[in-house]
Amino acid sequence: MRLIFYLFVISQLLNFIGVFAEKVREDSSKLNSINWEKLEENKSKPFKKIIWRSYKNDESYFGNKKQQSSIKKRTKSSNEERISEPLKKSGSTITKIEPFLPLNNFLDYGIFQTSVRWKSSFDGGVSGGTGQQNPSFVFDYGISDSSLMTIYFSEADDDLYNLINGQKVNFNWQNYAFSFKKELLKEKVNGFGISIVPTIEYWRQASGSKNSKSIFNQKDNSDGRDRFDNLIGSLSLPISKKYNNFTALIMPGMTFLPEKLGPKGIGKNAYGNNFYIGTGLVFDAVEDLNLLFSYTTPLGPGDNYFDSDLNYNRKAIYSVVLGWDINPKIGVEGKITNSFGATPSTGLLTIPSDNLPLYSANIIYNPHGNDTYLTELDERDKSISNGGITVNNALIPKAGTSQVNFSYDEGGNLFGFYGYSLSNIFQVELINIGIFDGLNFGGEKNSNLYSTYLSDNNLNFRLGGKLLIFSPQKNDIYWASLRSSVGRNNETNQGYVFSEFINTFRINKWLALNFSPKYFFSGVESFGGVGISSYINLFDNLMLIPEINTSIKNNSDLNSTLALRYSFSLENSLDLYYSNAAGVQDIGQLLKIKDYRLGIKFNFLL
């Protein structure tokens, strides 16, 4: 339930951000606009006597008049220029390489941006699954042109990556962080920039359970859970030198972490304080594309790593980052690093119980940036914007639109979906919850997948995003989107990654086709698949949707779905479907059950 609460809060925050940004744009438009008013000529007023003077060929007077006239003309047309001006090239501002390596970049006063960051190991270690994750949410706000406030939230709740004394050990932490960055020397002065960045955080740590011993217990072998709440902090001094197309960074810093936790610690059982020296390089490869590198050396006296024997030590921290501003609203980052923490005070720490390369996928949202312009969808294409049943299409509802779906079938499957379009080309899937019930696979086929993700009492939580690459709305010949989601089964605490490359073709006014290669990745099994479907308009408000999915593996599944969609309006519709797919949520699309089920699905665009 805690995850549902977090997703609800994030969804409301995104709605608030969208409304606030729209209000800012409206107020700005009112300030910049000019209202012209016709004045009636007062005919009773007599003409003044004209006095002729000689300016002796001095054209400065006329030059001033011409300049004033030019200013008036530019002012008169400023509103039209503002409307027709091209999209801003500048996108999201890179404010940090890692949370503990801030850059001397700032947002303008009153400007804010948000980011969702997903950091994970490449596999789940002894706990299985797709990896040990540490997702985080970051909010940046420009207090002034030379000061930046940043708020962080992160939570990691997987078992330790390695066995501890032959046992799986539960270990989790939760961070709430507040950071303030103040410019001391502007980068414009000889290209040098210096800032100071203090941070204070609330850090909750817990380890152990009724079946495992806490890693903080050094006195006895009793099982049990220990939990500790601490105020921690960090201080850094980023010093940078800017050249033509790259920026070099060196940064002394310090993290303040506890060295001993709880009454059962005999010696050192936590990280302790650490001085560090960080170095970084930001390279503007091409327009809207950046490469970032960093290498940080902890100097002690504390540590930032412990192994499966609970021996503490220090390890260098590295990262390689590729950043891409898709448009001025949306930026994405891909990263390889061994930093597991997601806040300034914990970012120096490796994955608990090991030192491994991790991957990080980040989405940065700048509500103040101009969006990619797309022409309006016609009525036929609006009616398919809500997607299909087990095969998605590549269309994305316009920016600021909420997409809501509910589905239920006679076997007891129940699914709910909420997506919000941050941009005309990007939709974030904030809520994607599913319950699979009463599935009959007809034997041992897919037994591992069933027991892990689709067993009794399962509740699958998903979080994802969908990016539009091609669209006829911007003069491409068809729609193409990339979609990916992550999540886990609440019962088994195991997760998987689901990705698809969706292609949608409008053949004529009554027919559209979809072709969607898919890939399922988990610690249990990984395999690909393909989904094919069509939208056939029988009447203006009645549509037939046939779909098939097949997995590409040894025991391949081939399932089919037939749906009839009735549209109450262009935004709202009802689907009746008959399917032998395991379900409409991600993994369910690629698995086949023995019997067909009748289901109903409600679709809304708000």
Top keywords for this entry?
606 residues; mainly beta; Porin; 13-stranded antiparallel β-sheet; 47% strand
Q: How is this structure best described in words?
A:
- The chain is mainly beta and 606 residues long.
- The chain has two domains: 110-365, Outer membrane protein transport protein (OMPP1/FadL/TodX) (Porin), CATH 2.40.160.60; 379-605, Porin, CATH 2.40.160.40.
- Helices cover 11% and strands 47% of the residues.
- The protein has helices at residues 2-32, 60-76, 78-84, 379-382, 447-453, and strands spanning 96-98, 101-102, 112-121, 133-144, 147-156, 171-185, 192-207, 226-236, 239-242, 246-256, 274-286, 289-301, 305-306, 312-313, 317-325, 330-337, 358-365, 402-409, 414-423, 426-435, 460-470, 479-489, 494-508, 511-522, 527-539, 542-552, 558-567, 572-581, 592-605.
- A hairpin with a 4-residue loop joins strand 18 (402-409) and strand 19.
- The model is unreliable at 1-89 (pLDDT under 50).
Q: What is the count of β-strands?
A: 29
The unreliable regions are: 1-89
Average pLDDT? 85
Indicate the proportion of strand residues.
Answer: over 45%
Q: Topology, please?
A:
Elements: H1 2-32, H2 60-76, H3 78-84, E1 96-98, E2 101-102, E3 112-121, E4 133-144, E5 147-156, E6 171-185, E7 192-207, E8 226-236, E9 239-242, E10 246-256, E11 274-286, E12 289-301, E13 305-306, E14 312-313, E15 317-325, E16 330-337, E17 358-365, H4 379-382, E18 402-409, E19 414-423, E20 426-435, H5 447-453, E21 460-470, E22 479-489, E23 494-508, E24 511-522, E25 527-539, E26 542-552, E27 558-567, E28 572-581, E29 592-605
